[in-house]
Amino acid sequence: MNVGDKAPEVLGINEKGEEIRLANYKGKKLVIYFYPKDNTSGCTTQACNLRDNYADLRKAGYEIIGVSVDDEKSHQKFIDKNNLPFTLIADTNKKLVEQFGVWAEKKMYGRSYMGTLRTTFIINEEGIIERIISSKEVNTKEHAGQIINQ
Questions:
Q1: How far, in Å, CA of 41 to CA of 86, rounded?
Q2: Considering 1, 37, 47, 119, which has the largest number of Cβ atoms within 10 A of its Cβ?
């Protein structure tokens, strides 16, 4: 997915087993942030930064959805443990990460593996991708500020 593309209508299933659709957010700006794994340090830092600034994000007109390939149960535990006020999509079939182009080869400690690139897509009120914060640009400690202060 690139700037100017229409986001897919069906986004996936959240931590409660509910289908999340783009139409649910019509007329709102939507932040879809992809992250590698629940309960890891960088992902927790990022989620908590969004949580701590959630009121400001909402005031600026944004709704937040997190996406990882973890399952619904893992997401529910992550939400409960960190008191997250937004929904998380369980992309266990990797459909959304592949559609958005964030499922890619990664390297750590000289080992290659497939994983999610930490990437944020900002979608306008009409469902069009307006901005992308790439994996090289995402600052987990200041992510809400990156979104609001474009």
A1: 19
A2: 47
For the beta carbon of residue 78, count every other beta carbon within 10 angstroms: 22
- Check: CB of residue 63 under 8 Å from CB of residue 86: yes
Cβ proximity of 38 and 75 under 8 Å: yes
Alpha-helix residue ranges (DSSP H) falling in 65-125: 72-82, 95-99
43 is catalytic: yes
Sequence spans of domains, the chain: 10-141
User: Does the 10-141 domain belong in CATH 3.40.30.10?
Assistant: yes
Q: Which of 13, 30, 43, 50 is catalytic?
A: 43
Give pLDDT tens digits along the chain (150 positions). 899 999 999 999 999 999 999 999 988 999 999 999 999 999 999 999 999 999 999 999 999 999 999 999 999 999 999 999 999 999 999 999 999 999 998 887 889 989 999 999 999 999 999 999 999 999 999 999 999 987
